[in-house]
Predict the 3D structure of the following.
Amino acid sequence: MITITPTPEGKDYWLVGADGGVFSFGDAPFDGSLGATKLNQPAEGIAFG
């Protein structure tokens, strides 16, 4: 599963893979990824803080 999530401004986006990998596009900041971490369940999305 891959989730595409736009930035709050709606101009750029992040892709989130089921393995926890995060990829940023445009001006979306890259704040890290869990792609190298074993997850108990697949990632289903991304949330803003």
About this structure: The two ends are 23 Å apart (CA to CA). The beta strands are 2-6, 13-17, 22-25. The chain has a mean pLDDT of 89. The first strand starts at residue 2 and ends at 6.
